[in-house]
Amino acid sequence: MEWMRWFSLPLRAPLLIVLFGVSAVMGHQWTLLSPRFSASSGLPLPLLFGLEVLQLLLVLILCTMPDLLMRRVSLLMASSRSMTLLVTLLVVIGAGIYLLRLNVLTDVLIIASALLLARLDLVRIGLDATPVTSILLLGTLLFGGVVLGHSLPHPSFVVVTPPG
After folding, report:
1. Distance CA 158, CA 120 (A)
2. How far is Cα 157 from Cα 3, in angstroms, rounded to an integer?
3. Domain containing residue 110
């Protein structure tokens, strides 16, 4: 009976399907843009793929476990005033450089919005998952969609013939 509850989860929380679809589209878009970005930035494609996975993992952790993460940062910042300033400075400078130099703000916001909506849908149906279960479920959908998007064929290889 427990398996039936897990298999019916996409029907009870349809935003999980939306998360999978959004991640597949983003993975396909990144596959189409990665050769051009790799040529312009000088980064090899495997390193670019590793940075993409790191970015997805960071967004996944921030969106699925914000309470645990913020509690740890708050405890660190509460230790002293200089530590508060140092942590704030590092976060602002790091996020600013990341968002300004890489021009990825829209991709991060789209993935983060889909993750947060899926998490909200899980709360709506009453699934009180532990942070580990939540990160495994949402991470599987997110990375599975990106892998599916990477494996989709390039649009120029698809031949559409008119009817008749």
Report:
1. 37
2. 40
3. 13-151
Residues 61, 112: contact at Cβ < 8 Å? no
pLDDT tens string 107-151: 888 888 888 888 888 888 887 777 888 889 899 999 999 999 989
Q: How many CB atoms lie within 10 A of CB 38?
A: 16
In a 10 Å sphere around its CB, with 0-12 CB exposed, 13-18 middle and 19+ buried, how is residue 139 labelled? middle
Query: Residue 114: exposed, middle, or buried by beta-carbon count in 10 A (0-12, 13-18, 19+)?
Result: buried
Per-residue pLDDT of 27-47, as tens digits, reads 998 888 888 888 887 888 888
Rounded (to 5) percent helix, strand, coil in the chain: 80, 0, 20
pTM for the full predicted model = 0.75
CA distances (Å), 28 to each of 25, 31, 141, in order?
5, 5, 15
Does some domain include residue 8?
Answer: no
What CA–CA distance (Å, rounded) separates 54 from 108? Answer: 12
Q: Distance between CA 160 and CA 31 in Å, rounded?
A: 21
Domain count, the chain: 1
Residue 3: inside a domain: no
For residues 105, 134, 150, 148, the Cα torsion angle rounded to the nearest 10 degrees is -140
